[in-house]
Amino acid sequence: MTVRVKPERDINLQGHYAGIVTRLAAFALDVAVAVTLYALAGRVIEYVMSSLKGSEVSLRDHPIISAIFLALLWLVYFAYPIAVGGRTLGMSFVGLEVVTKTGGDVDARHAVIRTIFLPFSIAFAGIGILIILINRDRRAFHDLVAGTAVVYSWDARAARLRFLAKSRPDGLPPSGA
Predict the structure, then answer these.
(1) Domain-located, residue 175
(2) Closest among 149, 148, 158, 154 to 19, alpha carbons compared
(3) pTM for the full model?
(4) What is the C-alpha to C-alpha distance for residues 121 and 132, in angstroms, rounded to an integer?
(5) Helix (H, G, I), strand (E, B), or coil: what is residue 60?
(6) Structural domain tally of the chain?
(7) Main-chain dihedrals φ then ψ at residue 150, nearest 5 degrees
(8) CB-based contact 95:106 (threshold 8 Å)
(9) Which range marks the domain in which residue 119 is found?
């Protein structure tokens, strides 16, 4: 079996604005992780509070506290990794990075603003997300407000090395493997 790797394509896309499909894939992964973290953290909080109080405590019985906790978790999950490394876990998997509209690193202020306005992009039938399709720089509503953009970003050196490691014409693995 031969793996066809096109490092030129990968390297040439690096730094270009990310498309809607890749961004939605990253967002779906991030939502799955955030929901899982919320469920696990909620159970831990319920357990600790039940132990301290001596009776059963359920976040389901306190919807306002639960909503505040979810909003804080959402803010921390999305804003902190973007402010520190320019990407969330989902973005890392699909090779995306958030940068300022001029291409610089995103600071905490931009990351928080972007995260706060993300739900507004989704609201109103997702029109804030769909504007990615008509903008030349593929920025959603929350990117426009925060002054950010999402670009393809992965290790170009690794793409070159994958090309060098492809199978030999005789079907045998590369030498040294």
Answers:
(1) no
(2) 149
(3) 0.77
(4) 11
(5) helix
(6) 1
(7) -115, 125
(8) no
(9) 7-164
